[in-house]
Each structure stands twice: as structure tokens, then as C-alpha cells.
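Researcher: Hi, I'm a grad student and pretty new to this. My advisor asked me to get structures for two proteins we've been looking at. I'm not sure of the right format, so I'll just paste the first sequence and hope you can take it from there.
Model: That works fine. Here's the first sequence with its C-alpha cells right after it:
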Amino acid sequence: MDSAQTAYLPSMGTLTEEASPRERMKTQGSGIMDVAGVPAVQSAFDEIAWRITCERLASDSNHGCGLSHDLFVCRLSGAVEAAVLQLPEVHRAKALYIAREWDYATRFEIDEMQQWNAENGYCCHGIELGCCPAGCDEE
């Protein structure tokens, strides 16, 4: 097979004039393309900046939680989920994994925590009924 007749062969990385523009694009850069077939720019995840963001979100979430860890987790988790939406989708899983260091919890985990609290005499803030300053046990 002569080189003028050879199309793109992934195993060999060979291109000719017969290769389509899309095949030619696949050999350039990371191979990630946007919907127009143009190589997409994929930014690196800035772990240090994300850790600083998590620290700030944790500090903000701590204010007004009355030292209730459950309330802190709910506030922090909501703030983290809002912040992570600002990141490229490709970085979100890593960001949420890192946020666990500050006690980020998924919606499912928070629901389980709330259910356990309700079944065991604690209010939605994680404080024993009769002791919550928000008056959760009052009707």
C-alpha cells in the first residue's frame, strides 16, 4: 500500500491527503474536541485554589451553626455543591473528593444523617430534642 493511498491508521499514526479533517484533528493535541470539531482547551485543575476555596467555605459555614456538626455539614455541603458547578465538569469529582477533608457530604449521606437523627431523638440540626436553641421540639 503506497503512502498516497493510506488513510489514518491509529496504530501507526499515519496521515495522508485522503484522511478526513476530523481524522487529522485526532492526531493533534489531546484529542478532545468541542462540538464544532475544534480541539477543546482543557485547563488543569488548580488543587491549591480549590483547597483555599474549601477552607473559606468551611469557615463561612461554621458561622451561625451553633457548634452543631450536622448543621455545619449541611451548610458546607450546599456551599461546596454550588461552588463545584463553577468548575469544568471534568474536575468536579476530584473537587468533591478533596472537599471531604472538610466534611463535605453528598445529598444521600445528609438524608441518611437526617433520618438517623429523627429515629434517635435528635432534631434536624443534630441536637438532642429539648436542647436545640431553635426550638425544634416545640410544636
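Researcher: Oh nice, that was easy. Here's the second one.
Model: And its structure:
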Amino acid sequence: MTSSPEALSAIEQLCIRKGVRLTAQRRAVAQALAVACQHPDALDLLSVVRERLPRISVATVYRALRKFEAAGVIEGQTFGARSRRYDVASGHHDHLFDEDSGDILEFSDPLLDRLQREVARRLGYRLIEHRLILVGRRLDEGVTTTAAADRTVPNRSAQLMPAPNLQPFRSTSSRVRQRRPRN
């Protein structure tokens, strides 16, 4: 299948630039990644890919994901005890994983990045890269609070209020996840 560059998803274009050969199956997985919610897992992608390729196996989807990850097209992360989730390699950001709902919030904080570099320097290292995954539970089911300004907004019905220098993005899986009881 030959597509014009405009018709290719950004992920397909990145695969081509990184030298990943796009078979029909890999192309379908790349297209599913392009339209999926943020941080899909292999089963999320399998359900989308099967709309176009009903006979594709879950093993083929996993192989494509491993190939994309090895080429630096996507990044895989494991959040808590859940399955590996995937994110397009699109610049540095950190994650906060909600242990109860499975929601994943992406954020970037220059102050935190400077602090991590300083800690590495104090220990005698130059930081090359880092990955930060915070795992937590909401303080209160009804509100989300930012520490910097003590502002609250209703939970799940409004965008998160960013503290200075934070840029949060809300991300949820396309599949319903079981809530684990709080201890």
C-alpha cells in the first residue's frame, strides 16, 4: 500500500525516518497508535487494529510494539502492576499514575528537572536522561488541589489546574479498569 506523505500518520512518518520497515501489520499498529487514547496498552491497540485486520494476533501487535520501541518511535512504561502502556516518543515529560482509577497524568516541571540534574551532580554524575513515574491516590474523591495556589476544582469534570511551571495533560485508557479498594 502506497500512501502520500500527507496521508501517513506522524507515527508512520517517524517509523520511516528511523528505518523501520512498515509491513501491513506494523502500519495498522502505527495507525492505531496515532488514533488511540494516550498511553494505550497492547490490548487497546489490538481491538483497534482488528477492525482493519480481523485475523491479526496479539503476538503480532506485541512484536510491532517492541520493534517501534527499539527504534525509539514509542516509549513503553509499566505503571503499577498493570500492563505495559505506550506513548509516542515526543519530548520529555513525567507521569503521575492514579493507583485507583488507572488514569495517567503527563506533566513537565522545569524546577523538578533542575533538581534531578542537581542531585545527579551532587552524587558525581552528569544526568543523561531520566524517567519519573509518581504513583498516588487522590487526596479527596471530590476535589483536586494544587499545592502552589490552594485552588480546588471539581474532580473529573474540569481540567486540572496547573501549578506554576506545570503543564498537566489528562490521559485515560480506552478500556474500563477495575478499581482496587483503598487500604
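Researcher: Is there anything I should tell my advisor about the second?
Model: You could mention this: The radius of gyration is 19 Å.
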